[in-house]
Design brief:
Rossmann fold; alpha/beta; 11 helices
């Protein structure tokens, strides 16, 4: 039997509402994934009416009656979820320009639902009046956002999404705009590596859970390798798979930050480091990169470093030392701690 990842402690005893995308339903694979991955949470999902005014009215009614602890919306569902104010929300590739998306990507005319609907309906029709009504509903996005909402909403945007391109629009209204490596649909990889870490941040905040802090120095995380290009070879920094495994493992139990030096008069360096971290670590590293020349000023519990600072107040783990020659040995060290 294939091993399946589960998160029984996350959102335990809480409610997660999922709002599906265009032509989908409450029977989508994402809903099944949420129910199996978060066995102690109640997963709420409903078939959204095709009529957008009816859909947003129904969703607001469900929010009022169920009071979900988290709302996750994908694509069209992300557009609807933005308007469900007063709740923690994750919007994945939100289709804030749904009318244009429908007109430009072959959604006009007869469409088949991708998943079974509770009413048994298998087809629906998109015409110009329906597109107009979607435009009316999307115009209600971002209206009268209160300051208390700003940190409660995360937008996740696939860097290879061929359908929706609303990162800049979202970022102009909310600070937590995050890119991830992926396309439009949310598959297992996107869910596990990019959505779950954000869910963990929200659950920790709701529970006032204070995890211990692990710092990774970037010099420990990346190695210089020769890579082939069209014009020959060049040297660039890469993240070894074993390092990525350690990083992913520690994310489950700790607050993980990446630390890099802070040289003066070197703006290109900061841009290069940020770009590398975004490429190798993606969404979990959002707002978790620190530039500092004095490691001893950083307040944390563990510091994985090639050249540890003897004045660091926590526990320093010297990568490539006799004790920690490999990332597997670092993983073993933290396994023995059991998250402490």
């Amino acid at each position: 039997m294939e091993y399946q990842k589960t998160f029984p402690d996350m959102f335990s005893g809480k409610k997660i509402m999922y709002v599906h995308g265009f032509a989908s339903s409450a029977q989508s694979g994402t809903v099944g994934r949420l129910r199996s991955w978060f066995p102690n949470a109640t997963i709420l999902a409903y078939d959204a009416p095709v009529e957008p005014h009816d859909a947003i009215a129904m969703l607001k009614e469900k929010c009022a009656s169920e009071n979900p602890d988290l709302i996750i919306g994908t694509s069209m569902g992300g557009m609807f979820a933005e308007q469900l104010r007063g709740f923690d929300r994750i919007l994945i590739n939100p289709a804030f320009q749904m009318a244009d998306t429908m007109a430009e990507h072959g959604m006009m005319g007869k469409n088949e639902f991708l998943n079974a609907r509770a009413d048994g309906v298998k087809e629906f029709y998109v015409d110009k009046p329906l597109v107009k009504r979607y435009r009316e509903v999307t115009e209600d996005c971002f209206q009268d956002i209160e300051d208390s909402e700003l940190e409660r909403v995360f937008g996740l945007f696939g860097d290879k999404d061929p359908l929706v391109h609303t990162f800049d629009l979202f970022k102009s209204h909310y600070p937590n705009a995050i890119r991830f490596h992926g396309e439009h649909r949310m598959d297992d990889k996107v869910m596990l590596h990019y959505v779950v870490p954000v869910m963990r941040w929200i659950d920790d905040r709701q529970q006032c859970r204070d995890r211990k802090v692990v710092f990774f120095h970037i010099d420990a995380m990346r190695s210089e390798k020769e890579v082939r290009t069209e014009n020959g070879t060049k040297k660039e920094f890469v993240m070894e798979p074993s390092c990525h495994k350690a990083y992913e493992y520690l994310l489950e139990n700790y607050q993980v930050y990446i630390v890099a030096d802070a040289p003066s008069y070197a703006p290109a360096y900061y841009e290069e480091v940020q770009k590398w971290v975004d490429q190798e670590c993606s969404a979990p590293a959002f707002n978790h990169l620190i530039f500092s020349n004095n490691k001893s000023l950083l307040y944390g519990d563990y510091f994985i470093d090639v050249n540890p600072d003897k004045n660091f107040m926590g526990t320093a783990l010297q990568y490539r030392s006799s004790e920690f020659k490999t990332w597997e040995e670092i993983i073993t060290y933290f396994e023995r701690l059991g998250g402490q």
